[in-house]
Amino acid sequence: MTIMENKVYVCRHGETEWSLSGQHTSFSDIPLTENGENQAKALRKVLEKYKPKYVLSSPLIRAKHTAELAGMKDFEMTKDLVEWQYGDCEGKTTKEIQKSHPNWEIFDDGPMGGESVQEVGARADRLIQHIRSLDGDVAIFSHGHFSRVFSMRWIELPVSEGKKFPLSTASLCILGFRRNSPVIDLWNDTHHWSE
Questions:
Q1: Which residue from 50, 52, 149, 152 could staple onto 137, CB 3.0 to 4.6 Å apart?
Q2: Could you list the active site residues?
Q3: Beta bridge partners of 12
Q4: Which element (helix H / strand E) includes 94?
Q5: Are strands 54-57 and 8-12 parallel, antiparallel or unpaired?
Q6: pLDDT band at residue 38 using 50, 70 and 90 as cut-offs
Q7: What span, in angstroms and rounded, lies between the C-alpha atoms of 85 and 114?
Q8: Using CA atoms, how far apart are residues 157 and 159, in angstroms rounded to an integer?
């Protein structure tokens, strides 16, 4: 029996104008704010401690720039790490969406005209399979909703459970294994901002 030991350091990108306003941001390539850049730089000292062997990033500028500011020099960009594709919800807040779709919840309903709950879950599963084939720890730089989807699928829960796990900008989560069972070792850690 193969013993699973690798860890995944899940890093959400730093603050943007739209993350501040609560607007859904998938394909819109919004840059980091000055505060978001400072948040990303604060991730550097944490990741230097862990020294991941592999680094993967969403190609969108907010994730890629976060990886760069966090001190990652060599990383692979993959479209599998882009944000949940919001379709007609792009640029809108949840309150705006709920005016025409009362009780709408992305983790249950998916975005109108965008990537379905099943599709985003399948994308996360494909990425997990790839990461588990690597020999060593991995840091990923991604986005709020997709990072939550990825983490739920890592611990073999349905995508819908992601609504119970809020995630701050430039936060760090650590996923790993206990006795070959996938676990969350750390969630939504932002203490590095104030150190």
A1: 52
A2: 13, 83
A3: 142
A4: helix 94-100
A5: unpaired
A6: very high
A7: 5
A8: 7
Q: What is the mean pLDDT of the chain?
A: 94
Tokens linked to 155: 């611990």
- How many whole angstroms from its chain centre is CA 76? 15
d(CA 168, CA 151): 14
Which CATH number applies to 8-194: 3.30.930.10, 1.10.10.10, 3.40.50.1240, 3.40.250.10?
3.40.50.1240
> 5 forms bridges with which residues in the sheet?
none
Identity at 50, one-letter amino acid code: Y
- Spans of all domains in the chain: 8-194
Instruction: Identify residue 141 by its one-letter amino acid code.
Output: F
The pTM score is 0.95
Strand 76-77, strand 54-57: pairing: parallel
